[in-house]
Each structure stands twice: as structure tokens, then as C-alpha cells.
Amino acid sequence: MSIWWSLHLRREAASVPLARRLLLGTMETAGVDPDISHDLSVALSEACANVVEHGGDAAAEDYRVTAFINGDTCRIEVTDSGPGFRERARRSMRPGRSTLPDHAPPPPMAAPAPAQAEHGRGLFLIEALTDHVRYRNRTGRRGAVVSFDKILKWKEEAPLMAS
Question: I want to staple 129 with a disulfide (CB 3.0 to 4.6 A). Which of 6, 20, 26, 39 is the partner?
């Protein structure tokens, strides 16, 4: 058996706990181990928070979260309609530093944030809490996609596994 759901959300802070609660409810109902559910909910919260902060401008007011549970794997995709990874890297470069050529792939992730920093840990948390992460720009459209997978562990007699 498999489960999937998709949300179309406004790019505002209130959307982050909404997505997290739906994921946690789905995991609980399916019988996923609470530690795994917690890891996925933190990773999803970080991905959504990144979209809210960096995922667009006035013309890009929404984003999509899709979750798939298939067998023992959960995949989550967060898609925005913002500038994409290359443009984000260009905008964040300091004056005097070179910009990326137009044909360059999305940049590798930056060094971890200093311990006292209030921002800059989201992508590192996603990578630490999940088994596989992919960052890409949308094909033929504006926007970025962050997707991540996690191998699931189940509670005894989990409803989804009994089917």
C-alpha cells in the first residue's frame, strides 16, 4: 500500500506548521515510528521555511509540498516558483566576488553557519535528518525543488504495513 498527498500553500510563515502537522498526522495514522516522523517533520519544516524566506517575490506567492509513502520509503518534495538556486547564489554573493556563468549548475551548499548564527542551518538539518537529498531547479520554469527520502521504521502492527 502507498499514501501520497500534495498541498498548494501560500508563501507565508503560517504554512510551515500546517505542512508539518499534516505530515505528522499521516505518519501517526500509518504507524511510522515517532523518531522517524520527528526527523521528517523537522526536515519538512526547514524546507518550507526556506521557501517562505527565499522562494520568490511578489509574483511568486505560493509553493507546493508533496509527500509519498511507498513501502518502506517516504519521499517529500518542496517546490517553489522563485528564482531557483543559481539566482539565489548570485543574489547572496558579496560585492567584488565573481558571479556564476549562466550555464553553471546550481551551486554546492555553503559552509555551515557559525554556532551563534540564527539562520543558515536549514539545508544542513535536512541532509542530517534524511537519507538522500536532491536540490534542483525546475525544468523549463522558474523555481527550485528540494526533495528528500527517508527509510521508514514502523511501530508494531502498523496499519499501513498490515494492508
Answer: 39
pTM score: 0.78
The neighbouring-strand residues paired with 147 are 77, 134
The answer to whether residues 54 and 123 touch, using CB atoms and an 8 Å cutoff, is no
How many Cα atoms within 13 Å fall on the side-chain side of residue 123?
17
The band of 120, judged by pLDDT with boundaries at 50, 70 and 90, is low
Residue whose entry in the numeric block shows the C-alpha cell 543558515: 120
CA-nearest of 76, 45, 53, 86 to 150 is 76
Neighbours of 162 (CB within 10 A): 9
DSSP 157: T
- End-to-end alpha carbon distance in the chain: 6
Which residues have a Cβ under 8 Å from the Cβ of 59 and sit 6 or more positions away? none
User: pLDDT, tens digit, for every residue of 55-77?
Assistant: 776 656 899 999 999 999 999 99
Contacts of 38 (CB under 8 A, 6+ apart): none
